[in-house]
Design a protein that fits this description.
- By secondary structure, the protein is mainly alpha-helical.
- About 45% of the residues lie in helices and about 5% in strands.
């Protein structure tokens, strides 16, 4: 048994429970040096966006506090990961380096380099599966190729066993005789200068404890009704676990186990229709990583190559893109979603589909503009899920919604926010509009607008595009691409 320390390199696994790398390090019986390295260059073309950096700051604070409760601490560094880890090996005398795998193209390449270099130097290097239920390289269709349609992919995954989550024993963690130097979390400069902290802080509790609390509350409160409530942005019908999952504050196995625990009472798994639909959403996250792993060019290029020649519209000066980003399109359900995003760093999934469809089909602006904006403003910004979602909306990805399927914002608003409560919350200038007119204020009689204090073109913008005209132009563009 080694007496030299083991370095555990934390990344998108900021938790102590069900952390395979940490559990394996503990099993060696030697001191454990927990480390986080901020390496923006190591993320290639996709360094972390501003909203996610806010989350990371608070998640690192929470992880360090959890480690200190067990007599340990988090060593924080900034720089090229390989160089930082080499310095830590030298400073601590560690003879082993453990981590949980990531699946982004840049991370895969970097991990391979580090594993080869450290292994050649006589350091024991091990990586583990701690992010997904099933790793992308282990799943293939009957022809031995990656799946490109979700339903057969998930049907196959449901035949595979899901291991129970690992439980870290109570008590202190073994620590090194001397701690290496560490930065304070504040020295990473993760907090943005724009006024996000108040809105984000009111909405979220980053960290493992916050994730566990949200999962428990969701399972108890909303899981059984999830199938019916998940499309209603005016209600609290979703889990809101996406950021916790992205940063690894809770694992998919822990989520699966929480649903299984409910099933014990009924003897049926999943225990309700809502639970089954929710687990399917976990499956979509798995599918997103499956696609990113096998098609690593997709964050920048459409999977369906014919869409590379799609005739996107011109936007001189970026005026329409800015109106979309700021929630000033004149379509209330779209504007509500974009303002929710800016204020909280999150947007309801149904509304994500509506605003994405509006960008790529009403404004006919490339999905890459939307992916970049979401990447910077979502606290749950995840390269796999972001890519899947935007290519789905643009009709250019795997198992995508066809491009000719164009969401009508007024109808979507009326269907999923019938009383207008979601719009009133995020577009307060429409707060006094009656429900029958709130999703199309331009059609409201003048006296209704006056009574609600709405001045179109002044207090609230007129629509920046006409729905019928935009729809016709989008279909014409699709025809042109096919020609």
């Amino acid at each position: 048994m080694s007496v030299a320390p083991t370095i555990v390199w934390f990344r998108q696994d900021l938790r102590l429970q069900d952390n395979p790398a940490l559990h394996a390090a503990m099993a060696r019986g030697a001191a454990v040096v927990p480390v986080y390295v901020l390496d923006d260059a190591g993320d290639g073309r996709w360094p972390m966006g501003g909203a996610a950096r806010w989350w990371l700051h608070h998640s690192l604070v929470a992880l360090d506090a959890a480690l200190r409760e067990r007599g340990s601490r988090l060593v924080i560094a900034r720089g090229e990961s390989g160089a930082v880890l080499r310095a830590l090996v030298e400073a601590t005398g560690a003879d082993a380096l453990f981590w949980n795998r990531r699946y982004e193209p840049a991370a895969i390449a970097g991990d391979a380099t580090i594993k080869a270099e450290f292994g050649a130097a006589g350091i024991e290097v091990q990586s583990f599966s701690g992010t997904l239920l099933n790793e992308p390289h282990t799943i293939a269709n009957k022809q031995g190729r990656p799946f490109q349609v979700f339903t057969p992919y998930w049907r196959h995954c449901l035949t595979l066993p899901v291991s129970p989550p690992m439980k870290l024993a109570a008590g202190a963690l073994p620590v090194p005789a001397k701690w290496p130097q560490s930065l304070a979390v504040t020295e990473l400069g993760l907090l943005p200068t724009i006024p996000w902290d108040a809105g984000f802080g009111a909405a979220w509790t980053p960290g493992e404890a916050g994730a566990a609390k949200r999962l428990k509350a969701f399972v108890a409160r909303a899981l059984s009704e999830y199938a019916d409530e998940r499309d209603r942005p005016d209600r609290e019908g979703t889990s809101m676990l996406s950021a916790h999952l992205h940063f690894g504050e809770v694992s998919p196995r822990q989520v699966w186990a929480a649903v299984q625990a409910l099933a014990k009472e009924s003897g049926v798994f999943p225990p309700s229709r809502g639970a089954g639909v929710f687990l399917t959403e976990i499956g979509w996250r798995e599918f997103a990583y499956h696609l990113l792993f096998h098609f690593p060019r997709t964050p920048e290029a459409p999977l369906r190559e014919e869409f590379a020649r799609f005739p996107w519209a011109d936007d001189p000066g970026g005026a329409q893109l800015r109106a979309w980003q700021r929630g000033r399109t004149g379509y209330p359900i779209v504007d509500a979603g974009m303002r929710q995003l800016w204020t909280t760093g999150w947007m309801h999934n149904r509304v994500r589909m509506i605003v994405a469809s509006f960008l790529v089909k009403h404004l006919r602006l490339s999905w890459t503009h939307g992916a970049a904006w979401f990447w910077d403003t979502l606290v749950d910004a995840d390269l796999a899920s972001n890519t899947l979602g935007w290519q789905w909306s643009a009709g250019c990805g795997a198992d995508a919604a066809p491009y000719f399927r164009i969401f009508a914002p007024v109808l979507q608003g009326a269907k999923f926010d019938g009383a207008g409560d979601y719009v009133r919350r995020w577009v307060p200038e429409l707060g006094r509009m009656p429900a029958e007119h709130i999703h199309a204020p331009w059609d409201a009689p003048l006296h209704v607008l006056a009574e609600a204090g709405v001045r179109l073109g002044d207090s609230y913008p007129r629509p920046i595009v006409d729905h019928a005209k935009a729809r016709a132009e989008a279909l014409a563009a699709l025809k042109e691409m096919r020609a």
